[in-house]
Write a structure and sequence with these properties.
By secondary structure, the chain is of the alpha/beta class. It has a single domain, classed as Rossmann fold (3-Layer(aba) Sandwich), CATH 3.40.50.880. It is built from 6 helices and 14 strands. The protein has an 8-stranded mixed β-sheet, sandwiched between helices. A 4-stranded mixed β-sheet has the order 6-5-7-11, with helices on one face. Helix 1 crosses helix 6. The chain is globular. The protein starts with a strand and ends in a 5-residue tail after the last helix.
Length: about 220
């Protein structure tokens, strides 16, 4: 039985993520929500979800001694980051005066500008970016299989990632500004949106992850 470990560090919509994975995984795969480092290390796939502040995320990862196993898993097996699970991969965040991240990807997490305007109406855009939006894939990847350009995904965030290496950018979205909403490198794929809340398109991405062998 293959295990899909959903990393539980006390933040995020873990049960919704696990339920969505249960819907799309194969009969020989088991979804396990866990904070146990050994269970995560021994799983065949790892999902790193999260909602909230990156400072709290990093504090809980340190408290649970999960940083080393996350770093090891990113290099060794199919790994999916969701929302805060993408932001935490960066070196630092503007949130709470330069909070450090895991530093897996060079770059930073930035707050949306306060003066963003709708391109047609001129209406001021609210932060957080909350609701449905399209995603423009910038490169082919197995996790985009069956997902059309017009498909929409659900976002809830006030900060966005700005990787230094544009080669890791797998998709972009526009909300006032254009920003990276998905990154792919090695056996890792991470998204700013919530696939577990994104209905058909989100379930398709999760199903692709469950089948993915970790190669682009």
């Amino acid at each position: 039985m293959q295990r899909i470990a959903v990393v539980d560090y006390g933040m995020g919509n873990l049960r919704s993520v696990a339920k969505a994975l249960d819907r799309v995984c194969s009969h020989d795969q088991q979804v396990l929500v866990t904070s146990d480092a050994d269970a995560i290390a021994n799983a065949e796939r790892v999902v790193f979800p999260g909602q909230g502040a990156i400072r709290d995320c990093m504090r809980e990862l340190a408290r649970l001694s999960l940083e080393p196993v996350l770093r090891a898993c990113i290099d060794a097996k199919p790994f999916l980051g969701i929302c805060l699970g993408l932001q935490a991969l960066m070196e630092s965040s503007e949130e709470h005066a330069e909070t450090r991240g895991l530093g897996i990807l060079a770059g930073e997490v930035r707050r949306f500008p306060a003066d963003m305007r709708h391109p047609v109406s001129g209406e001021r855009l609210k932060v957080p970016h909350m609701g449905w939006n399209t995603v423009a894939a910038t490169r082919d990847h197995p996790l985009w299989h069956g997902i059309a350009p017009q498909d929409r995904f659900y976002f809830v965030h006030s900060y966005y990632v700005a990787p230094k290496d544009q080669g890791v950018v797998a998709a972009r979205t526009r909300y006032g500004i254009e920003f990276c909403c998905a990154a792919a490198f090695g056996s890792a794929f991470a998204v700013q949106f919530h696939p577990e809340k994104s209905q058909r398109a989100g379930l398709a991405l999760l199903a692709n992850f469950c089948r993915w062998d970790g190669r682009a």
